[in-house]
Design goal:
By secondary structure, the protein is mostly helical. The protein is about 80% helix and about 0% strand. It contains 18 helices and 2 strands. Strands 1-2 form a two-stranded antiparallel sheet. Helix 3 crosses helix 12 and helix 4 crosses helix 8. The N terminus is likely disordered. Pfam families: TLC (PF03219).
Length: about 550
């Protein structure tokens, strides 16, 4: 009997060894031994012989559990995608209201010193506000890191979304009260009592202008932070294979939310008024927080809530050998990243410098981003200036701006879903870097040549072109470049370029514009110099892109 049992055990062991990779239904039997406790060889042989007969039912159960879990993950991703789309819709409403009020004559900075001696001077406050976005973003990032450590990603996203909603609602209430005071005729020097507050102001602008300035800075800093946190959840829940299929529809859902909200601005302003757009934006942010909380709730309930300690999933084991090596490198670097988190930020800059020395493509991209963002900030200011001069009514300007951004978001969505995938089949991706500055050179040259009679049309064309390319072409070109680089380039390099180069370019141009407007004011020839500067930066952008294009070609050859 013992001899028979030994022979049967050997036969069973041989059969199980031949089936070790798969039992016909994709269920590895070796995982039973990996997940169990340490047992003797005799017990493991006996257990294997028993598992052979029961493996179909076990694998069927595992398969059903995997399908259910995958369904729950996609439900959580859909909830976060809806939160993202609603958030972007709220931002469009808030942006339209804030920009119209910021450039208004009643509550904002719209009056020029050529028309009134009491005003500090036109739209010179706009580039100053843009320049303050970068330092405020750094403080906001520090505050976000504190909340992230305190309560995790779910707590941080909820807190910051509700702060954003509360700021919109409070500023809407305060600006609405100040706007009512403008309708009242008071004697010169008499104090105006703000409804709901216990103090008065002699001039509405002493309270409305700082409020709008802070709201502009707050809004532009917060939108990118919350946007990145929505995508961080989505990227953590989905596997890379799933992400390649789901990222485009999710981005499209966000574009739809932005387009619908921007297209409704004119109707909403006409029916409810300009300031009430801030209340609606706050309500949308609250709704976005609800959807985000539902997504995190599903993730926690089913055990796939994102956390810094477990960023890799078992489904990633099906990657190719090259991807597995990248995965091991990612885990290795993530451990070193945690150990280096206590090192001063100076080390980050030294690492970035050495990285740019090792990977010249990143250094060229860093310079290209700075120049392009300088041009974007300048074109944005010219557009807002022309818009203010052409459409003086605040409500009409907000409606026109909303429809304009709706077209930008809509065309960007069409490019992302249909045009770019087709073009990439017949054209190399790195040629996008040459197309973007060439397009802007034509636009700025046309605007410069037709400065006296072009008006809003040429300014709108230039701004439309650069924003559409930023939302569609640049994103595709960036990701296709980063995916060909190593881990350090994809993570450290990408962070440095997006946070430092992009912010520095906009802030540098904003500070320069502020200085120009303060020193020279809104003279008749100031716009000529601004347009000439735009042409110069378009040429610089083209030169930097030519160098970047050449380095990318050499990199891809190797």
């Amino acid at each position: 009997m013992n001899i028979r049992r030994a022979a049967a055990a050997e036969s069973s062991n041989a059969d199980s060894g031949s089936r070790n990779h798969s039992d016909g239904q994709g269920c590895p039997l070796s995982s039973v031994r990996k997940n169990g406790a340490d047992v003797s060889s005799h017990e493991s042989i006996k257990k294997n012989s028993e598992d052979v007969s029961s493996s179909p039912s076990l694998c069927s159960a595992k398969h059903r559990d995997g399908v259910v879990l995958r369904s729950k993950r996609f439900q959580a991703v859909f909830g976060m995608a809806m939160s993202l789309a609603i958030h972007l819709g709220g931002y469009e409403l808030s942006r339209a209201a804030v920009m119209a009020l910021f450039t208004s004559d009643g509550l904002g900075f719209g009056k020029s010193h050529h028309t009134t001696s009491s005003s500090e001077g036109g739209l010179s406050a706009l580039p100053m506000a843009v320049g303050c976005v970068s330092p405020f973003s750094i403080m906001l990032l520090w505050f976000y890191a504190k909340t992230l450590v305190l309560g995790g990603p779910r707590y941080a996203l909820q807190i910051h979304t509700m702060i954003c909603a509360g700021a919109q609602i409070f500023c809407g209430w305060l600006l609405g009260a100040l706007d009512q005071l403008l309708e009242l005729k008071k004697e010169d020097g008499a104090a105006l009592i703000v409804p709901g507050l216990s103090f008065g102001v002699k001039d509405v602008l002493t309270l409305s202008q700082p409020t709008l300035f802070l709201l502009f800075v707050f809004q532009n800093a917060y939108v990118q932070l919350l946007y990145n946190q929505h995508w961080a959840f989505i990227s953590s829940v989905l596997t890379p294979d799933e992400g390649t299929q789901a990222f485009a529809p999710i981005a499209g859902l966000g574009s739809i939310g932005s387009t619908l909200a921007a297209g409704m601005v004119s109707t909403l302003v006409e029916r409810f008024g300009l300031i009430r757009l801030l209340y609606m934006a706050g309500a949308l942010f609250v709704m976005s927080a609800v959807f985000a909380d539902v997504a995190f709730g599903l993730a926690r309930k089913h055990g796939f809530e994102p956390s810094g300690d477990n960023e890799q999933r078992s489904a990633e084991k099906s990657f190719s050998n090259e991807q597995e090596q990248r995965l091991l490198a990612t885990k290795k670097h993530s451990i070193h990243g945690k150990m280096a988190s206590t090192v001063s930020t100076q080390n980050i800059f030294r690492q970035a410098y050495s990285l740019f020395q090792r990977v010249p493509v990143l250094g060229a991209l860093f310079l290209e981003v700075i120049i392009s963002q300088c041009l974007s900030s300048l074109v944005n200011y010219i557009f807002l200036y022309k818009l203010k001069v052409s459409i003086t009514d605040d409500s009409m300007r907000a409606g026109w701006s909303g429809n304009f951004y709706a077209w930008i978001n809509g065309i960007s969505g069409v490019l992302q879903f249909f045009i770019i995938p087709i073009l990439l089949k017949y054209c190399e991706a790195h040629r996008i870097w040459l197309f973007m500055p060439t397009m802007m050179l034509f636009c700025t040259m046309y605007q410069f040549v037709n400065n006296t009679n072009s008006g809003l049309f040429a300014a709108s064309a230039s701004f439309f072109a650069i924003k559409t390319m930023e939302y569609s072409l640049r994103g595709a070109a960036n990701e296709m470049l980063y995916v060909s680089l190593d881990y350090e380039s994809r993570y450290l390099g990408k962070k440095v370029i997006s946070l430092i180069a992009g912010k520095f370019g906009k802030s540098a141009m904003a500070i320069a514009l502020s200085a120009v407007m303060v020193v020279y004011g809104e003279r008749a020839d100031t716009m000529w110099y601004l347009l000439a500067t735009a042409v110069v930066f378009s040429c610089l952008w083209l030169l930097s892109s030519v160098r970047l294009h050449s380095l990318i070609k050499n990199h891809l050859k190797h």
